[in-house]
What we know:
This protein is α/β, with parallel strands linked by helices. The protein has one domain (2-150): Rossmann fold (3-Layer(aba) Sandwich), CATH 3.40.50.10490. Helix content is 47%, strand content 14%. It has 7 helices and 5 strands; from the N terminus they run αβαβαβαβαβαα. Strands 2-1-3-4-5 form a 5-stranded parallel beta sheet, sandwiched between helices. Strand 4 (87-92), helix 5 (98-102) and strand 5 (105-108) form a beta-alpha-beta unit. Helix 6 packs across helix 7 (144-151).
Amino acid sequence: MERLMSLLDSRPRTMTYGAGTSRLAAADLSVKFRRLGIECIHYEDLEMSRTFLNYLGESGILFIFSNSGETESSLSLARLAKQEHLTLIVVTSYPGSKLAALADICLVTDSRHEHPVRFGAMTSRIAQFAVVDAISLLFSMRDEELSWSYISKAYHETE
């Protein structure tokens, strides 16, 4: 996490991606990054993500959320990111997965024991949201005054 925080200190352009239920955590991280002053792109559509990947620039970071680490759309985007020399951060439950093997930093959620009969991917989703919250909180604590200057922009006086 410390290495990730150091990368984020320069407030690089970022992109988040997740397929299926993992898209929820990816979208949440995108919103939190924007509220902290980090430029972040998020598309649920793979082709839109592929199209705008190069807009991240040389120091760009791609965050991919995939519980299995084997989702083909996530792997496709990760391979393209590596080809473009972007930093790849992966959030997965499987550190031995194909996606984790491509990662510069792999954050392991370890929700591999999720029951097969469920209403959505509950355990993995909760674990991914915990990682999002940890990233956001740790980053905001690095410069609380600056973080609050960005966060406070969302609050409006009402009559």
